[in-house]
Amino acid sequence: MSKIILFDGVCNFCSSSVNFIIERDKRAIFKFGSLQSELGEMLKNKAGLPEDTDSIILIENGKAYDKSTAALRISKELDGLWRLFYVFIIVPKPLRDIAYNILARNRYKWFGQMDQCMIPSREIRDRFLGGTFKRR
Fold first, then answer.
1. Can you tell me the mean pLDDT for 83-110?
2. What is the pTM of this model?
3. For the segment 4-48, what is each residue's pLDDT rounded down to a tens digit?
4. Contact call for residues 33 and 131 (beta carbons, < 8 A)
């Protein structure tokens, strides 16, 4: 079954991260959706996450993971040496999330922001969940 990654669709860093994942997910197990989409908001609510959640979210087997836990669980499925990063799951989540929160808080300042959510190319469009996009 596919695993769903919800990401900030207007964040340059987040969109680049999605492209990074796609290039290293040769088995195509991940599907993607924008946090700003109606479907993204519905999945967030269904998972019991607060409405203002704007971190990366991984939904697998009906359970939602966010922040560093999501990133590490994603890395575990990637091709190449990226899966080795999963070893950091042993670090307590509050400590892991310190670095994640610093990056998340500064992502627009450091990497910029788009006016609209990324539009996937024809080759990868089937990896993206449907839904209309809303601006924040």
1. 89
2. 0.81
3. 999 887 777 787 788 889 999 999 899 998 888 888 888 888 888
4. yes
CB atoms within 10 A of CB 115: 6
CB of 89 closer than 8 Å to CB of 105: no
Task: Provide the token pair at 85.
Answer: 């990063």
Q: Which among 66, 33, 7, 56 is positioned nearest to 132, based on CA atoms? A: 33
All structural domains of the chain with their residue ranges: 3-127
E strand segments, 11-111: 30-34, 57-60, 63-66
Helix, strand or coil, per DSSP, at residue 86: helix
Token code pair at residue 50: 């607060």
35 or 83: whose pLDDT is higher? 83
Cβ–Cβ under 8 Å, residues 32 and 134: no
